[in-house]
């Protein structure tokens, strides 16, 4: 189980719960090393769950199952920070070029009038470790495309309208980096990303959240 996240009133979208606690569960393979959660394999999705506990809900502590070794408990604090979408996402491409298919596939092909902006954006966009809401900080390309391709009935190439449309429906719920204090590492420099569609977030359907892992 990853840290419970209590919602702060500032800095999060209106769809987020105004009270209560979010609990994030991820099966790390302790008891079945050959079983891993993979966004491309729906049969593994049960290994990553998000549970919402409304405020004032009676709860009882539970012991860690004997087959599992508990992770150290690490207290966290939070602060508000700015975040920005990846420039490969359709909303960014649309804002900059007016065409979601027009973004160059290599930095050397960046239109001349956007070169200074792209360079400044890269300098200002800092890596964030643990995060609630906002825009994801991907390790290997936009995570919205990972979950969109897994959701669609057939795989689409980057820039295909169905893929762009589906990617825009998903927002970041939370991301967790490796943490030496908690003895949690996802590969060498990996990250766990929970995403959810905006309509499912507004309706508190957290069972519809999906986990993307990038390493």
UniProtKB/TrEMBL annotation:
Q: Which InterPro entries does its entry note?
A: DUF1963 (IPR015315), YwqG-like_sf (IPR035948)
Protein name, per record? YwqG family protein
Q: What is the protein's species of origin? A: Streptomyces justiciae
